[in-house]
Amino acid sequence: MSQVHLLKKEFERLARIIAVSEKHKPTFGSINNDFKPYIFQDYKNNLHYIFKERGEIVYEKSTSDFDEILFWIFEDITSTLSYDFELKNRIEDQDFRRIAFNHQVKLRTKLNKVWGERTIKKHNKIIEAIPLMIQHRKELNTVDILEIFNYQKMKLI
Fold first, then answer.
1. Average pLDDT of every residue of the chain
2. DSSP string, 92-113
3. Where do the Immunity protein domain residues begin and end (predicted)?
């Protein structure tokens, strides 16, 4: 049985836990797809996770670690599900990331406790770079975000 077949089987088991719909599932095998991420195994038995848009590779990650590729796949899926959840449960005057990040951690933890912990660390780094909007400020526009980001970069230099 190929690694891709085993990966798909484990993916399907985990996907049922958080009710992943077909539209969010990647394609398994060497299908060159512009609409969904796809996974294939190369001749060295490395697993590749690729997403293309308009024929151009947007990202490509490869590993021989079964758990790591599942982590990547569910990172993307749970991110999409979390932002969808946030849109349906938005709280006015609150940074949208509070709801989305919390929901993603819950989903990831359901799948794998370590994934949940890794997700918390990632979110903390994002919040450190671009802090959560404070309650009394109603809007944070693109210029503000760029100023905060540039300030954080300058601080690090």
1. 85
2. TTS-HHHHHHHHHHHHHHHH-H
3. 46-119
